[in-house]
Every structure is written in C-alpha cells, then in structure tokens.
Amino acid sequence: MQTLTRKEREKQERESKILQLASAMLKESGYLGLSMDRIAAEMEYSKGTIYQHFPNKEEIILSLANEALKKRLDMFETASAWNATSRQRMAAIGAAAAEFVRIHPMYFAVDQLVRSASIWEKTSDQRRQFMQNCEASCMRIVGGIVNDAITDGDLRLANNMTAEVLVFGLWSMNFGAYSIITSSDSLEQVGLPEPEIALWHNQNLLLDGYGWTPLSSDFDYFHTFEQAKQELFGGRTPNEP
Amino acid sequence: MQTLTRKEREKQERESKILQLASAMLKESGYLGLSMDRIAAEMEYSKGTIYQHFPNKEEIILSLANEALKKRLDMFETASAWNATSRQRMAAIGAAAAEFVRIHPMYFAVDQLVRSASIWEKTSDQRRQFMQNCEASCMRIVGGIVNDAITDGDLRLANNMTAEVLVFGLWSMNFGAYSIITSSDSLEQVGLPEPEIALWHNQNLLLDGYGWTPLSSDFDYFHTFEQAKQELFGGRTPNEP
DNA sequence: CTCAATTATTGACTATTCGTCATTTAATGA
DNA sequence: TCATTAAATGACGAATAGTCAATAATTGAG
C-alpha cells in the first residue's frame, strides 16, 4: 500500500520528467533554448498541463538549481561529519565541492542565470527561501568546521576577523573558479591546463595564510582529498544512477 | 579639422547613445527587460536603424562588456606601472578592481550573462576576440607583477606552481566575490556586513599563504590600497564624468 | 540648380515565445 | 447511469527578435 495515490505518483513522475527535459534543453542550448512549447511538445502534453506544474519558466530553472543545491547540502553534511582533523574535514568539503561540480556541471551556469537574469523576481517565495536556506546551511556547515578548528587550537583568527570572512573567502574562490572553469574552454591558451588543481592549491594556500594547522606544507591534504572522495562520495554518490 | 566626417560622428554618437540606453535598461530590468523595440522607441529611431548598428541584441551586450573591460585594462596597466614594491603593486591592482566595480556595478552581471546564456555563440568573432584579449592582457599584467616579485626575491613559488596558478587564485576569488556581492542583498543576514573588506582580507591572506613578502602581518597594505585608490584612480577616473 | 544614383530610414511582416482561460474531455462515485 | 468534479487542451493576446521591400533623404555630376 502506497502513501501516494496513483494520481499523485503520476503527477510527481511527470514533474521530474519535465525537470529532466528542461535540464537537457538548458544544457543543449542555454536559457534562450529552454522553451515551454518545446517541453510541452516533447512531453506530448499540452502547454496548459505543463503550466499546472510550474507557473512559469523561471520556476523550472530555480527548481533545477534547488535540486542540485539539496544534493550539495547533503554532500557537505557528509563531509563535515567525517571523523578527521578540522583541516582534513575542510579538504573533504573541497572534495564534496569538486564531486558536486562533476555531477552537476550545469549548476554554475544555472546559478549565474538565476542571479543575473531577472529570474529571481518571477519565482515563488517558497523556492527562493529554499535556495537561500541551502546556501546559508552550506555556509553554516563550513563555518562549523572553522569554529571546531578554533576550539581545537588549530586556528586562531585575528581580532578583526570572523569565521564568516574565512568562509566567504573559500566560497568566493570556489564559486569564481568553477564559474570560470565551467564556462570557458580557453584556459589552456592562457597557461592553465589544470584549473581544478590550481583551485585546490589556492584553497590550501589561503588556509595556510590563515595559519590553519597543520599547514599544507606539513601535511599531504591531497591524499586526504582523494581519500574523502573515495570514502565519502566514491563509487556512486547518493541519488545518482 | 576632424578626421571623421559629420556622418561618421553622428553614427558614433548614436552608437554610444544606444549603448547608454541599453545599459540603463539592463540595469533597470535585466536581460529580459532589454528590448530592441524599446531601445528604438526611446532613441526615436526605427528598429531597422538600430539593427544597422548592431546585428543583434547579443552584440549590444558584448559591446557593453567590452567597453567596461577596456577601462579595466587601462586601470590595471596604471596600477602595474606604479612605482612601488611588488606586493604594493598587487594591492594597487586590488584597488583598481574595487574601483572598477564601483564604476561598473553592472559588469559582473553582464559578464555572467555572456558566459551563461547562449550569448557567446551569436556574437561576432571580432568582439569575442576583443573580450578574450582584454582578459588575457589583464592576466598577463598581474602575471608580470608576480614575476617581478620572483625576480626581486619577494616570492618563491614551489616546484609544482606557476605564476598562472597564483593569478588564477586572485582572479577566481575576485570574480566570485564580486559576482556574489553584486547579485545578492542578503549577505548581512549571513554574517557578512562588509563583504568587500572580507575580500580584501582574503586576498591578502592568500598572498601570505604564497609567502609573498612583506607579509600582510608585517606591512599595512590597507594604507597602500587607499593610497593607490587616491593617487591612481582618485577624484575622477579616466573616461568617467 | 536638377535629377539620377546612392544611401539611410522606416515600419509592416514573419516567426517565436510566454502565459491565460474558456472549452472540451476524462474520471469519479452516488 | 449520469451529474459533478477534475484534468487537459490549444486557440488566443501580448511581446519580442529580426527581415526586407518600400520610402525618404542625401549626394554630387552635369
């Protein structure tokens, strides 16, 4: 006996089919190529039915972003709960971020879209709040690791510093790096054949700059990174075929 | 005696008027609010005439980005040519970036737009190359300062490191931070009342992590930053009323 | 100055899109 | 069986990008 009626199940299936199609279209031809008419046509439903699921195009896009963000939050939680030193847990967060990008190469494009085009205003409070919640939760998780490091004596912040500033440093570096990486194919021509590794080095050196011990010169965090990837997200990540 | 005929001048004026209007519209209501019809209406010209200047909407957007990028390149060159230590010149680059964002708050939104929506494909080779050129030049300038630092003995890169990796670190951090800052109004709610200052700290700590002397703990780079802002870009920046 | 040739401008037109809603179709259960 | 409720439809209105034949303005040779 199911908790959902056949109708409810059908509806949910259709919804995920819509999102799946939309994701493919977005990947294929960007925001402008994502057309409600085409979704309806490919679904073999009329447009009106699609609009019963999502009141507008923007809600679909934000839904896609939220699906991804939810997974990222899970991965960050997994990384944070790892039994290791604070900086190793931080490395695990890095592994989570890298794995997330591997699984959702579209996410940054979508996130940028949501931020830049006037998509935000057209979406429902509920979905907007969900998104902000996910982001805030991610920050809180990373902030928690920072505070643990302080508690453990591995990190001492200067007077005019807060954990939030450090988290913002990592966040902005990651966001920027992956935005550039996923939307630019000419990085080799500019002397950066392996931008992901460059990001990894820079993250470590930033934490070294904060004096978060053990410093990356004294410990092989790349090994930790690979280990976290394997143990925590190895083989198959949750919710992914 | 002008080198341009009256017609050419008129055309150029009209072109900059179009860009000006487009910029305002983009600021006002985003990519979707930027309408060729509305531009034509507000210019009091017909649509066809607008299309004689720009073959499509996307070219207008890329033009706007390029206008801004050109100015940033100028500012970076100015900063790099400053007579000071390598890390001070780096601080001047930071001042240039900050000043650039102050003058062009729209730039990051437009840049993200160009990257994420399918704008890139629709634009001319010429404009695309101009953009890539500007970006590459900016990187080269910053890379030049890094190399000067190495020559001066203020910086020693590890074996597996290159100047490009460092530049990428600064680039991604700046790009990410300003993208987030200019597209998010809820940073205070997340414990970041002054994100620009946070960025500044993080940049310095990253360079400290690289061991670029004098370290920020030994030298007041914020003073340098303010000084560069004043001396190099103070009062009125070039090409700005 | 005149007027044919060139150049610039126009806006009606096509095609495409989003989102709505009266109408039709299907499902339900008394 | 059939009245009532729910779901699905697609024609429609309103915007928009971009085109292009027709029109207006400019130019410069005679």
Overview of the structural elements:
2 copies of one chain form a homodimer. Chain A has 241 residues and is mainly alpha-helical. Chain A contains 10 helices and no strands. In chain A, α1 crosses α4, α5 (86-103) crosses α10 (221-233) and α7 (125-152) packs across α8. The first copy, chain A, starts with 5 loop residues before the first helix and ends in an 8-residue tail after the last helix. Chains A and B meet through α1, α6, α7, α8 and α9 of A and α1, α6, α7, α8 and α9 of B. Chain A binds a DNA duplex (30 and 30 nucleotides) through α3.
What's the layout of helices and strands?
The structure is a homodimer of 241-residue chains.
Chain A: H1 6-33, H2 36-43, H3 47-53, H4 57-80, H5 86-103, H6 107-116, H7 125-152, H8 163-182, H9 195-210, H10 221-233
The structure holds a DNA duplex (30 and 30 nucleotides).
Taken as a percent bin, the fraction of beta residues of chain A is: under 5%
CATH architecture of the largest domain in chain A: Orthogonal Bundle
SS summary, helix count of chain A: 10
Q: How would you describe the oligomerization state of the chains in this entry?
A: homodimer
**How many structural units, i.e. domains of chain A?**
2
What is the fourth-level CATH superfamily of the largest domain in chain A? Answer: Tetracycline Repressor, domain 2
Task: Please identify the structural class of chain A as seen in this structure.
Answer: mainly alpha
* Biggest interface found: A-B, 54 and 54 residues
Helix-strand topology string of chain A: HHHHHHHHHH
Radius of gyration of chain A: 20 Å
Low-confidence runs of chain A (pLDDT<50, min 5 residues)?
237-241
- CATH C-level class of the largest domain in chain A: Mainly Alpha
Tell me the number of strands of chain A: 0
Envelope shape of chain A: elongated
Overall pLDDT of chain A, averaged?
92
Report the sheet with the most strands of chain A, covering strand number, pairing sense and barrel closure. Answer: none
Helix content of chain A: over 70%
CATH topology name of the largest domain in chain A, in short, is: Tetracycline Repressor, domain 2
Distance between the termini of chain A: 26 Å
